[in-house]
Design brief:
heterodimer, A: 9 helices, 21% helix, 36% strand, disordered C terminus, B: 0% strand
């Protein structure tokens, strides 16, 4: 368990944030300049706060009042950087074991073989970092951090410098980390899909301050007085169950109290809950159940709020049976012409291709 | 008179022609060559640790007086060598403040000794060495060092396992430059430790002596050829070392 409470003043930026990070993945989420990376650097000891405390279980890593500031190499935090930063003069194997030799022998819980097997990097061990692809490098960087048997794993936008295909290649490995090594992880990202897929808790940052803490669904909901761009990025998280698999079409039908959700791909938890994320900009509203449309997913709910700021767009919140809230970005013109108002029952149409899933099996990417 | 001498010399060079290189190297010349190698090697190896630390400080630290340190290191590069040699004589001579201290406490005398020649060469080669090492150190991505720190390496371990290996090409180049400078050093050496055969007479001072002697040309040419061979040899060895560090990295240390 990490307790973090730090203040840091820069000429053009004030960082002042407090949060706790327990087991599982705690995601620090926010746009660039929101202080996510500052928080990670403070945790790793690469930056020192003007005021504050950082506790790790019962260890005090930083306490400015008592003059405690543990240097990075004694913090036992495994940091994975955005650009892998492998040591160019060492082989992959030496990079992997680099941190291990600084770890006290009795604290080496994690050993080379399972890490290499889990990350699928056995064939790369004798290679030089410069000969690896971006995705391979990032896997080695994750392995290198793991092999220090860290108390906490810190990941600073580990996928940001990779293209979409490479991201899909790495994400399953990061998901599997929790199952196989169970290391509390702090994960920094500005990509909603990554956060929803990985995080147990989301800490949402805005201009150096914490604006929301909670489950992905809670913390990712837009603020009541959010700016137009923030509304544009609004995302809903819906919880459903797997109903049946349309193997010949490569699709899965999920049941939700508001209607069936038809999603591409194969889902791996036939009994448990499945979470899907839907961007507000991908939702279409209709006053009647439409006919003759290619859209397969139609959810029925009740409008609870229409937030307009006088611009082109309106953010609609729709309460669905079962308790989930779906958000839709529609134009003010459409709201006026359809005469939408809170309390109306509407159908929300979602194109399957835009549904991004949280718990999809890694094998069918 | 002077014209006459140089005229004679030009004539004798022409008359000796290609036989010069084949003429045997005399015992005195071997002494000068051996002494030069000893002085240059000691100067390079003894100043290398200081050169690495100075380069590290200049590349990584910001402090008051950094410009002053930088200027001091580079001074021998821009001063007339004779001035450097004279300053060494004033400071390290037996009556100089540092020289008398060294003699009284350690019984160590530098002036007019080969050790003094090594000191003069080291000081003259130092700016070249520091410059080469500093440039490679500045080119190292400091985020690599931070990464090593988060993996548990203390600042000293980071220096030994990341900074030093990555700076190795620059360290080799710097050492070579210092060695070459030491082999050719003349002005500061002759001012500080004079030109004593067997003690302080290095290849350049021996060549100088030959050029001041009638019929000294064959000796001067022999030693010049030896200088070329040593310089080329040093270049080749440094190139091999540089390649080996790269390959060494490839195998993964």
């Amino acid at each position: 368990m990490i307790r973090f409470d730090c203040r840091l003043k820069r000429s053009d930026f004030l960082f002042d944030a407090a949060f706790d990070a327990g087991n599982g993945v705690t995601a620090l989420f926010g746009p660039s300049g929101s202080g996510k990376t500052t928080a990670i650097r403070l945790l790793a000891g690469l930056e020192s706060p003007d005021h504050g405390r950082i506790l790790l279980d019962d260890m005090v890593l930083v306490d400015t009042d008592r003059g405690i500031n543990t240097p990075p190499h004694r913090r036992r935090m495994g940091l994975v950087f955005q650009d892998a930063l492998l040591l160019p003069h060492l082989s992959v194997q030496s990079n992997l074991t680099y941190g291990q030799r600084f770890t006290p022998r009795r604290e080496r819980r994690i050993t080379l073989d399972p890490v290499v097997a889990m990350l699928g990097i056995g064939h790369l061990l004798s290679r030089r970092p410069e000969t690896l692809s971006g995705g391979e490098r990032q896997r080695v960087a994750i392995g290198r951090a793991l092999l220090t048997s860290p108390h906490v794993l810190l990941m600073d936008e580990p996928l940001a410098s990779l293209d979409q295909e490479r991201k899909l290649e790495i994400l399953p490995f990061i998901e599997r980390l929790q199952g196989e090594f169970a290391i509390p992880t702090v994960y920094v990202s500005h990509a909603v899909e990554e956060i929803v897929r990985l995080a147990t808790t989301v800490v949402r940052l805005w201009e150096g301050k914490v604006v929301a803490i909670g489950s992905p669904a809670e913390a990712l909901a837009p603020e009541p007085n959010a700016s137009a761009t923030e509304r544009f990025n609004a995302v809903s998280v819906l919880t459903a169950k797997v109903k049946n698999l349309l193997a010949e079409y490569g699709m899965t039908v999920l049941t939700h109290p508001a209607g069936d959700i038809v999603a591409p791909g194969r889902f791996d938890s036939p009994q448990g809950d499945v979470q899907v994320t839907i961007r507000a900009t991908n939702v279409t509203l209709a006053t009647h159940k439409p006919k003759g449309l290619s859209v397969r997913t139609v959810l029925t709910g009740q409008i609870t709020a229409l937030e307009a700021d006088g611009g082109v767009f309106v953010l609609a919140s729709i309460a669905l049976p079962g308790g989930d809230t779906l958000r839709a970005t529609v134009t003010r013109l459409a709201v006026d012409e359809l005469a939408l108002k809170p309390g109306d029952t509407v159908c929300a149409l979602i194109k399957s291709v835009t549904i991004s899933d949280r718990n999809r099996a890694a094998s069918v990417n | 008179m002077r014209h006459k001498v140089s005229g004679n010399r030009a004539e004798s060079v022409r008359s000796q022609g290609t036989t010069v290189a084949l003429t045997a190297i005399t015992a005195e010349e071997w002494t000068a060559i051996a002494l030069s190698l000893k002085v240059a090697s000691v100067a390079t190896l003894a100043s290398l640790p200081f050169g690495i630390v100075t380069a590290l400080v200049l590349a990584r630290k910001n402090f008051r007086g950094k410009m002053l340190l930088d200027g001091l290191v580079h001074l021998p590069l821009v001063l007339p060598p004779v001035v450097t040699g004279y300053a060494l004589l004033l400071l390290f001579g037996r009556k100089g403040p540092i020289g008398s201290f060294l003699e009284q406490t350690f019984g160590m005398v530098l002036s007019f000794r080969w050790t003094g020649a090594a000191l003069a060469c080291a000081i003259m080669g130092f700016p070249l060495m520091v410059r080469a090492i500093r440039l490679t150190m500045e080119a190292i991505d400091q985020k690599l060092e931070h990464a090593a720190g988060t993996l548990g390496a203390s600042p000293f371990q980071v220096f030994m396992t990341v900074t030093l290996p990555l700076a190795m090409p620059g360290i080799i180049a710097g050492a070579l430059l210092c060695f070459a400078k030491a082999l050719g050093e003349f002005g500061a050496t002759i001012t500080f430790v004079a030109n004593i055969p067997g003690e302080t007479q290095t290849i350049p001072s021996a060549i100088y002596t030959y050029t001041q002697t009638p019929d000294g040309d064959s000796g001067a040419i022999r030693l010049s050829i030896v200088s070329v061979i040593i310089a080329l040899g040093a270049l080749i060895i440094s190139e091999i070392l540089a390649r080996r560090t790269v390959r060494h990295g490839a195998r993964g240390a």
